[in-house]
Amino acid sequence: MGPHLFCRSRQKSAEPLSRASIFSVFGLGDKSDQSDKDESFTFVTKSPPAAALLKKAANIAAGSKEPNKTKVGKVTRKQVMDIVKTKSKDLNARSDEAAFRIIAGTARQMGLEIEG
Questions:
Q1: What is the 3-state secondary structure (H, E, C) of the chain?
Q2: In angstroms, rounded to a whole number, what is the distance separating the alpha carbons of residues 108 and 74?
Q3: What is the phi/psi pair of residue 15, to 5°?
Q4: Over the stretch 39-86, which tens digit does the pLDDT of each residue have?
């Protein structure tokens, strides 16, 4: 399969995601049987990075350069839980509360305060 078909397939697989959001795409070659001439592959699309979702929720351009001293914005617990729902399949957490703590840690490292 040529690169143009690979790119076209990737674009079709990413259509449900917003054009304005950042997301990761991994192309995995299916080489289970070397005698097979089919050069098939599988796309795995991941959710946007937590930092990008938090910046969008807090309506900020960038995180703080000194997050322990300078706070640049605030997000509510509900906004963080919405991000958890978006990223739930990509996070290595057993519960929503554990996933919340992961995203909350990212928010703190960006200089964001969590209200509620």
A1: CCHHHHHHHHHHHCCCCCCCCCCCEEEEECCCCCCCCCCCEEEEECCCCHHHHHHHHHCCCCCCCCCCCCCCEEEEHHHHHHHHHHHCCCCCCCCHHHHHHHHHHHHHHHCEEEEC
A2: 10
A3: -55, -40
A4: 666 767 788 899 999 999 999 999 999 998 999 999 999 999 999 999
For residue 85, the Cα-to-chain-centroid distance in whole angstroms is 11
- Global model pTM greater than 0.70: yes
Pairwise CA distance, residues 115 & 1, whole Å: 50
Residue in the block written with tokens 């990008």: 52
Domains of the chain (ranges, CATH numbers): 3-45 (no CATH), 50-115 (1.10.10.250)
